[in-house]
């Protein structure tokens, strides 16, 4: 056994591990930890590396709650970390009057266990825990927070993360995810809970497991988004990507009067191992290949895919011959904005994250609607006063903010199906609608450039260089203005990022990822359509976007 020269000594590390194992109520993670300890004592280097990583820090609680790999130690998702998080949240809520907390969970490994551990902690703290009856979509939990008049909500989910991950998402009583300073205040209480033995946390089994009433109400509210006289024919292939959206999605379609979707059988039942996909995110290459194969075979009108907790929605449409293509998040965002205006959505502003396409600004302005930009994430979008519709390019859409103040992949899917059915009645398709929007508002071409770094210091260096030596032109386009988002000029909360506005309506936004050691760059160029020459405008936009992309990629080398 070799003593480490960086961080705690191996002796101290082993002592930390043994102390953690002594309080871990989970046989699996305790056994895993004891095996790592024994292997480290035997001098096995890889075991010590893993043990050090598990105890190298603590999963950080932020506006997205907790998210990480399942395993032992404070830097993993496990029952100890979850119970400490629940105790910290309980202290935060008790200081503000207490109340009820509704708890939902998906079908990932340990989600049900983490949810019921949280209920025991909340009950022991004198709160009123209400647990959803089974694994259900995140939008159902977001709906339940306000529908039940709760002080807070917790959703145990890692959304579209890899199978080995899980997470803990927190909503406050307004039905929105937390934003500063609540995240820091809750994190402070979690740290206090973690500084004491786990046995000091009071537990109680007096909680309520809800029936299907909340789910029934959610389904009824979503189905009511489609008016009674709307056309109902649409041949939809659907996949929940082994997640929890399937049952709820089918119920919504049935209640709204649409035909049952054509299931992708191999992906329909919840499975925490996600066996048919490398990564359970509909944006990832190959994730919806089974759905596309099914759509070709049955001659479908469209494909709808939800991510595993069903808060995101992806859409694919037929092209020429047997080809199909998945729409980008920005394309779906623009289509929903247009469709909601066509169908007479209630007055109020539209909103988008600042990294999403500006096309909806033009669509909304033409209808006399205001558009708001927010920081990335629905914790910001959902807080726009009077919001009528909000979206972000990462497949997130909020089409019914009066009921769900978060992205909702099921209600968004319903409106997309209604739209396709109506277009079909008119002898048109989705590409025709996109062409019409481009002709009226210009071609808005978007893409991303990102880079992952093993040394996080590289990220800080790149951001510092952009601030101190910004470019005067990118891809042949002059830089007209630069906005340091740490000191924003348009009322946004400060965040680490840079926004560059270029000639011709192009823009670049650069920001470090909040969850990975990556820099992400979001690019958009705009090309007007002159004389109906849409193909020419699209070609020009693609060429200009490629030039800008090459220029940005050079920053990250």
Automatic annotation (TrEMBL):
Segments forming domain Alpha-D-phosphohexomutase C-terminal: 496-534
Co-factor requirement: Mg(2+)
Keyword tags: Isomerase, Magnesium, Metal-binding, Phosphoprotein
Domain Alpha-D-phosphohexomutase alpha/beta/alpha: 59-191, 216-316, 328-437
An annotated GO BP: carbohydrate metabolic process
CDD domains: PGM2
Listed GO MF terms: magnesium ion binding; phosphopentomutase activity
InterPro entries, alphabetized: A-D-PHexomutase_a/b/a-I, A-D-PHexomutase_a/b/a-I/II/III, A-D-PHexomutase_a/b/a-II, A-D-PHexomutase_a/b/a-III, A-D-PHexomutase_C, A-D-PHexomutase_C_sf, A-D-PHexomutase_CS, Alpha-D-phosphohexomutase_SF
Family: Belongs to the phosphohexose mutase family.
Name recorded for this polypeptide: Unannotated protein
């Amino acid at each position: 056994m070799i003593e480490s020269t960086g961080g705690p000594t191996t002796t101290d590390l082993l002592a930390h591990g043994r102390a953690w194992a002594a309080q871990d109520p989970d046989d699996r993670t305790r056994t895993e930890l004891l095996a790592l300890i024994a292997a480290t004592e035997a001098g096995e280097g890889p075991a010590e590396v893993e043990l050090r990583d598990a105890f190298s820090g603590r999963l950080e609680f932020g506006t997205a709650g907790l998210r990480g790999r399942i395993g032992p130690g404070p830097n993993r998702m496990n029952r100890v970390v979850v119970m400490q998080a629940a105790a910290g949240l309980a202290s935060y809520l008790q200081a503000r009057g207490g109340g009820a907390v509704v708890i939902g969970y998906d079908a990932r490994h340990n989600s049900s266990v983490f949810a019921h551990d949280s209920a025991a902690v909340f009950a022991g703290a004198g709160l009123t825990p209400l647990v959803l009856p089974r694994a259900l979509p995140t939008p159902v939990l977001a709906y339940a927070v306000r529908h039940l008049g709760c002080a807070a909500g917790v959703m145990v989910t890692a959304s579209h993360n890899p199978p080995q991950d899980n997470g803990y998402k927190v909503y406050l009583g307004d039905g929105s995810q937390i934003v500063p300073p609540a995240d820091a205040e809750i994190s402070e209480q979690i740290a206090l809970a973690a500084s004491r033995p786990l046995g000091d946390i009071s537990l109680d089994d007096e909680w309520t497991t809800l029936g299907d009433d909340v789910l029934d109400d959610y389904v009824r509210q979503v189905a009511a988004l489609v008016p009674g006289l709307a056309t109902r024919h649409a041949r939809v292939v659907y996949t929940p990507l082994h997640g929890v959206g399937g049952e709820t999605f089918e119920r919504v379609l049935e209640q709204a009067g649409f035909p049952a979707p054509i299931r992708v059988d191999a992906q329909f039942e919840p499975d925490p191992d996600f066996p048919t996909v490398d990564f359970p995110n509909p944006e990832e290459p190959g994730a919806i290949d089974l759905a596309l194969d099914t759509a070709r075979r049955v001659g479908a009108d469209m494909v709808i895919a939800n991510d595993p907790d069903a808060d995101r929605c992806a859409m694919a449409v037929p092209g020429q011959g047997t080809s199909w293509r998945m729409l980008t998040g920005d394309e779906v965002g623009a289509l929903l904005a247009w469709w909601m205006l066509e169908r007479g959505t209630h007055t109020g502003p539209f909103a988008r994250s600042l990294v999403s396409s500006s096309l909806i600004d033009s669509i909304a302005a033409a209808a006399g609607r205001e558009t708001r930009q927010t920081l990335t994430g629905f914790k910001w979008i959902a807080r726009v006063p009077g919001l009528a519709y909000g979206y972000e390019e990462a497949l997130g859409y909020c089409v019914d903010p009066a009921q769900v103040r978060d992205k909702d992949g099921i209600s968004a899917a319903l409106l997309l199906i209604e739209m396709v059915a109506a277009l079909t009645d008119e002898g048109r398709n989705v590409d025709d609608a996109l062409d019409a929007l481009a002709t009226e508002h210009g071609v808005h071409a978007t893409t991303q450039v990102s880079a992952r770094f093993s040394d996080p210091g590289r990220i800080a260096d790149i951001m510092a260089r952009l601030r101190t030596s910004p470019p005067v032109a990118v891809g042949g386009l002059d830089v007209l203005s630069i906005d340091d988002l740490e000191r924003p000029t348009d009322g946004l909360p400060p965040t680490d990022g840079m926004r560059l506005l270029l000639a011709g309506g192009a823009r670049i936004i650069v920001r470090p990822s909040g969850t990975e050691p990556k820099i992400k760059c979001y690019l958009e160029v705009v090309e007007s359509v002159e004389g109906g020459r849409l193909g020419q405008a699209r070609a020009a936009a693609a060429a200009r976007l490629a030039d800008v992309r090459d220029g940005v990629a050079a920053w990250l080398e």
